[in-house]
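Long-time lurker, first post. I've been practising inverse folding by hand and with some scripts of my own, and I keep getting stuck on stretches where the C-alpha cells seem ambiguous. Below is the full C-alpha cell string for one chain I'm working on. Before anyone asks, I'm not after the true native sequence, just a reasonable design that respects the backbone. If someone could post their per-position residues I'd love to compare against what I wrote down in my notebook.
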C-alpha cells in the first residue's frame, strides 16, 4: 500500500472499529479538548496584557502642565455598596478646553454624573433605594464600555462646581508613575499558577493518547499477518492518533469559544476581561495546532518502543527500564540555585529568578517521581494479597501511573505553595481589619467635621458613637510630629482604658509633655498655631483595637484643655456600632454623609467589607484553588480511562486470578493500592515542595512562613476521593473480566 492508503486505513480503524473505537474516540476528544481549551486560554496571555495596558494608558492622567490647556480639577474618591467598591471621580473644569476623560463626549456639569455600564445596571436593579442617594448628582449618560479597565468596574464621573483640592490634570493617556508592588507580587504568583495548571496538560494529552494501546497492537499484528511492513504500521498508528487529536482540537476550540463568550462574568481580584482580550496570538495557535497532534503521534510511537508487533502476535519486553538519577536532579539543583539567593522581588530580575526557580523545582517532581516509585516498591515486602498484587504490578509497570500522578503532583505542589502565600497575606490583612473591632469608621475633613458628626449621630440605630478631632503636636522643630486627638472623656476611657477622666485632662503615651509647656499644633491644612499644655499629662496605654491604634494617637486632650484653639482645620474621625442589627446599617451611614461629597468617607472593616489587598489575595487564592481542583478532575478522568483500559488489557490475567480462587474484592483492593501508592508518594513530595515554595516566596510579602493546612487537607482529600471513585468505577469491568470466559483466546 502507498503512504496515502496507510493513512486512510488508520483513519478507518479509528472511526470504524465498532463501539469500542467510538468510545475511545469520544473520550480522547473530550480529554484533549479540555487540554486544548486550557492551552488556548494560556496563549491569550499576551493579548490580555497588551489590551489592558492600552486601556490603562488611556485612563491615566497627565499632571505635567501643557501650554494652552486649561487644567481639570480631578479628585477620585471611593464608596462601597454591599461589599462592592464604587469609584466616584469628581471633576471641575477651569476653562472651555479642559481635558475630557475617555468614554464620554463632554464633562458633567455640577449636579450631573456619568455612570459606567455596570454601575448603571446596579442602580437600575437596586430595589432598596439605598444606592441612588449615594450618587452626588443626576445620571445623564453612560460611559463607553470599552474604555473601562474592567467590564465590571463601577465608576461615576461626577460634575462639581466647588472642587478645590485634588491634582490638576492636563490630559489623559500616560504611563502610571508608580509600580504597585503588591499587584506585581500577586501577578508573579499567578504566572507560577498558570504554569502549574498548564504543565499537567501535556502529561494528560500523552496519557489519553495511549487509549486502546492493547487493542491497537492486536489490530497491527493482524495487519502484519496480512503483509504490512513495520514502517506501514507506524503510519497507520500515526493516522489513528491524528484522528483523536483533530477531534480534540475541534472540541477544545468549541470549549474555548464558549468560555470566551462568558468571560465578562469572571473577575480575578482587580482584573476582568473582555471577550476580545481572550484572543490567542496566531503564532501560538499555529504552535498548538501542530504541537497537539505531534505530541499524540510521538506518544503513541513511544508507547510501542518496548512492544514488538509480529504477524502471529504481540511481544512486550518484560524487563522494566532502568531509571537513572543524575539527570533527574538537574532541574531541582537549577531551581534551588535561582530561588535561594534573594535578588529582591522589587526588581524584574528578582521576580524572573523566583518564577523560573519555582518552575524548575516543580519540573523536578515528574522527573523524580518514577525513580522514587521504583525504589520504594522494590523494597516493600509482605502485606495482604491485594497489596502484594499491586506491588507486583507496580514493579513491572510503574511508569504509566507515575506519569499521571506526576502531573497531578505538580498541581498539588504549586497549589499548596501559592495557597499558603495567599492565605498568609489574607491573614495579615484580616489582622489589620480586626484593629477596628468591627466598628464603622467615618472620616471627614475639617470644614465639614461638625456636619459629619451630626449626620452620623442621626442615623437610626447608631450606638456607642465616638468622635475625635485630629491634629499633630511637636515640642520643637527638631522633633517628629505626634498624633494628637481631641475627644470627650467617654471616648478617651473607651479607647485607652483610663479611668477618672475629667474635662480639662491631658493624656500622653511616649510623648514628653509637662504642664505649662508651649508646643506647636498643626492641622490637615498645614496651618500651625501655638498651644500651652494646661494640665499635667497622665499616661495611657492604647487598647488592642479602636481609634487609639487606628490613628496611632500619642496625645489625648479633652475639649476644655483646647480652649482658645481653632479646630476648624482639624479632621474628624467617628467610630460607631450598629445597635439594631440592621444588615444595611453601613449603607445608611454612607448615605448620611454622601451630601458632603469627597470631604467625607466611610470604612467598615467587618465581615462584609475587606480591603482591596485582602480582596485581591482572596480572589487569587480562590481562582488558583478552583484551577487546581479542575486539573485534579482532569487527572481523575485520565486515571479513570487508564484504569478501565488496564482492566481491558488484563482481562485474561484477571480471569486467571479469579479462576484460581482470588475474590473480586481482593482484585479491587489491589487496584486501589495500585493507584494509591504512587499518589501517596507523590502527595508527600508535592507537600514538601509546596512548603518549600511558600518558604521561599514569603519574602515577597512578609517574614513568617504561613502554611495553609486547610488547602493541603482539601487537596489531599480530593485526591484520595478521586482514587476511590476511579477504582469504584472499574467494578463492572473487573467483574466482567473475572469471569471464566475471559480465559478464552481469539
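-- Answer (accepted) --
I ran through it position by position. Result:
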Amino acid at each position: 500500500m502507498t503512504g496515502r492508503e496507510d493513512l486512510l486505513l488508520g483513519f478507518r480503524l479509528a472511526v470504524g472499529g465498532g463501539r469500542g473505537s467510538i468510545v475511545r474516540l469520544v473520550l480522547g476528544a473530550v480529554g484533549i479538548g479540555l487540554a486544548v481549551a486550557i492551552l488556548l486560554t494560556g496563549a491569550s496571555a499576551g493579548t490580555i496584557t497588551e489590551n489592558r495596558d492600552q486601556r490603562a494608558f488611556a485612563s491615566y492622567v497627565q499632571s505635567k502642565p501643557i501650554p494652552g490647556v486649561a487644567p481639570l480639577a480631578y479628585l477620585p474618591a471611593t464608596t462601597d455598596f454591599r461589599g462592592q467598591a464604587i469609584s466616584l471621580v469628581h471633576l471641575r473644569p477651569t476653562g472651555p478646553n479642559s481635558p475630557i476623560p475617555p468614554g464620554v463626549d463632554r464633562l458633567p456639569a455640577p449636579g450631573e454624573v456619568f455612570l459606567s455600564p455596570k454601575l448603571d445596571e446596579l442602580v437600575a436593579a437596586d430595589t432598596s433605594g439605598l444606592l441612588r442617594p449615594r450618587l452626588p448628582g443626576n445620571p445623564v449618560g453612560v460611559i463607553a464600555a470599552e474604555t473601562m479597565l474592567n467590564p465590571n468596574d463601577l465608576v461615576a464621573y461626577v460634575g462639581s462646581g466647588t472642587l478645590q483640592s485634588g491634582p490638576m490634570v492636563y490630559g489623559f493617556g500616560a504611563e502610571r508613575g508608580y509600580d504597585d508592588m503588591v499587584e506585581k507580587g500577586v501577578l508573579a504568583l499567578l504566572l507560577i499558577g498558570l504554569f502549574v495548571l498548564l504543565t499537567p496538560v501535556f502529561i494528560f494529552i500523552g496519557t489519553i493518547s495511549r487509549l486502546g494501546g492493547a487493542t491497537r497492537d492486536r489490530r497491527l499484528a493482524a495487519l502484519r499477518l496480512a503483509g504490512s511492513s513495520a514502517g506501514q504500521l507506524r503510519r497507520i498508528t500515526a493516522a489513528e492518533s491524528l484522528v483523536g487529536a483533530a477531534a480534540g482540537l475541534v472540541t477544545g476550540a468549541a470549549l474555548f469559544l464558549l468560555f470566551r463568550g462568558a468571560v465578562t462574568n469572571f473577575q480575578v481580584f482587580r482584573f476582568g476581561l473582555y471577550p476580545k482580550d481572550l484572543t490567542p496570538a496566531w503564532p501560538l495557535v499555529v504552535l498548538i495546532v501542530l504541537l497537539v497532534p505531534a505530541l499524540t503521534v510521538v506518544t503513541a510511537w513511544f508507547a510501542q518502543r518496548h512492544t514488538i508487533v509480529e504477524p502471529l502476535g504481540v511481544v512486550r519486553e518484560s524487563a522494566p527500564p532502568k531509571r537513572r538519577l543524575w539527570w533527574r536532579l538537574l532541574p531541582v539543583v537549577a531551581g534551588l540555585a535561582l530561588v535561594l539567593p534573594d535578588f529582591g522581588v522589587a526588581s524584574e530580575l528578582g521576580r524572573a529568578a523566583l518564577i523560573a526557580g519555582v518552575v524548575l523545582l516543580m519540573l523536578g517532581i515528574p522527573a523524580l517521581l518514577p525513580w522514587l516509585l521504583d525504589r520504594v516498591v522494590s523494597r516493600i515486602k509482605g502485606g495482604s494479597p491485594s497489596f502484594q498484587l499491586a506491588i507486583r504490578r507496580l514493579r513491572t509497570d510503574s511508569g504509566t501511573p507515575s506519569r499521571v500522578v506526576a502531573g497531578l503532583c505538580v498541581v498539588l505542589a504549586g497549589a499548596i505553595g501559592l495557597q499558603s502565600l495567599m492565605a498568609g497575606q489574607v491573614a495579615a490583612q484580616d489582622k489589620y481589619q480586626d484593629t477596628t473591632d468591627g466598628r464603622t469608621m467615618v472620616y471627614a475633613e475639617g470644614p465639614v467635621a461638625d456636619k459629619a458628626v451630626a449626620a452620623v449621630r442621626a442615623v437610626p440605630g447608631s450606638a456607642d458613637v465616638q468622635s475625635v478631632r485630629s491634629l499633630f503636636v511637636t515640642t520643637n522643630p527638631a522633633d517628629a510630629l505626634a498624633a494628637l486627638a481631641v475627644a470627650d472623656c467617654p471616648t478617651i476611657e473607651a479607647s485607652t482604658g483610663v479611668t477618672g477622666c475629667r474635662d480639662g485632662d491631658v493624656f500622653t503615651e511616649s510623648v514628653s509633655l509637662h504642664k505649662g509647656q508651649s508646643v506647636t499644633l498643626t492641622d490637615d491644612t498645614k496651618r500651625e498655631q501655638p498651644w500651652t499644655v494646661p494640665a499635667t499629662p497622665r499616661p495611657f496605654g492604647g487598647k488592642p483595637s479602636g481609634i487609639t491604634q487606628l490613628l496611632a494617637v500619642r496625645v489625648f486632650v479633652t475639649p476644655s484643655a483646647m480652649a482658645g484653639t481653632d479646630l476648624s482645620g482639624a479632621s474628624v474621625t467617628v467610630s460607631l456600632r450598629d445597635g439594631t442589627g440592621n444588615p444595611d446599617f453601613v449603607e445608611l451611614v454612607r448615605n448620611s454623609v454622601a451630601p458632603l461629597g469627597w470631604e467625607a468617607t466611610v470604612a467598615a472593616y467587618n465581615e462584609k467589607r475587606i480591603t482591596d489587598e485582602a480582596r485581591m489575595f482572596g480572589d487569587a487564592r480562590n481562582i488558583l484553588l478552583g484551577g487546581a481542583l479542575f486539573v485534579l478532575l482532569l487527572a481523575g478522568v485520565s486515571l479513570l480511562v487508564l484504569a478501565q483500559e488496564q482492566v481491558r488489557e488484563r482481562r485474561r490475567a484477571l480471569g486467571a486470578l479469579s479462576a484460581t480462587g482470588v475474590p473480586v474484592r481482593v482484585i479491587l483492593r489491589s487496584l486501589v493500592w495500585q493507584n494509591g501508592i504512587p499518589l501517596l508518594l507523590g502527595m508527600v513530595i508535592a507537600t514538601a515542595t509546596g512548603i518549600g515554595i511558600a518558604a521561599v516566596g514569603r519574602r515577597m510579602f512578609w517574614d513568617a512562613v504561613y502554611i495553609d493546612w486547610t488547602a493541603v487537607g482539601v487537596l489531599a482529600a480530593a485526591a484520595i476521593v478521586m482514587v476511590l471513585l476511579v477504582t469504584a468505577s472499574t467494578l463492572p469491568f473487573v467483574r466482567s473480566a473475572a469471569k471464566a470466559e475471559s480465559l478464552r483466546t481469539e
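A couple of notes from the structure itself: The chain has 21 helices and 22 strands. The first strand starts at residue 61 and ends at 62. Happy to go over any region you disagree with.
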